[in-house]
Amino acid sequence: MSDETDALFHDATTALAAGRAGDAIASFEALADRGVTDANVSYDRGLAYATRVRIDAELPGDLGRAAQGFEEARALTLDPKMADDASHALAVVRAEVARRRGRSGDPVELDQGLSLGRTVTHLVSEPAWSVLALAASVALGVALAVRRLATARRVHVAGSIGASIAAAMLLVCAALAVAMRDERLHRREGVIVATSALPADEHGMSRPGASSLPEAALVEIVEMKPGWTRVRWGKVDGWVPAGAVRAVEKP
Fold first, then answer.
1. Per CATH, which fold does 3-110+187-247 belong to?
2. Which of helix, strand or coil describes residue 229?
3. C-alpha–C-alpha distance, residues 226 and 64, integer Å
4. Which of 50, 133, 173, 224 is the most exposed place for a label (fewest CB within 10 A)?
């Protein structure tokens, strides 16, 4: 950070520690406007919005903005403790949103979960899939060498079976590593930062019977155009006002 951004961060954390949530938010948002992407800044920004809710000075969308800060911190950090803290804070924020929605008679589900494909892909990390693919490649080479050099029929058969299994593992692990890399590079996510966002069609017309997207929900950003953002949340796919969703920055 430059000296000016360091000063902004100091002002923000000082105001947050003193309970001056509004001042802290102003400084944290000034850092965001400068393009500062840092897990600590995002986490503390989430805390600032959550603090404004806690001290009964809440403005519409504060819970969503708190959730966005924690989601962003979780995406940016390499520190397991911060990731756990951000996950816990997210759970608290979304529990409060669910409580409010339940009180007003709206559906309380906020987490659509991962699809089956993404669930399988996220069983381990991208580097782990790459290492497994490398190990399968080595095993395939060994099995092919055994099959080619074996003189005994039993050993030849064992080499063939081993080669088949290793080849299948190589294909699966390599495909999953590529899928995770593609998601990391191209998938954009955001958080709903409005008290509710009613999805519309491409002409901006509300769809009959459509349910509003809940505040603090994590959505996939599919497409953007002036004034509108197309998002996907579970089976819901529609356009919402651009100000109703805030992107989650990634490394």
1. SH3 type barrels. (2.30.30)
2. strand
3. 22
4. 224
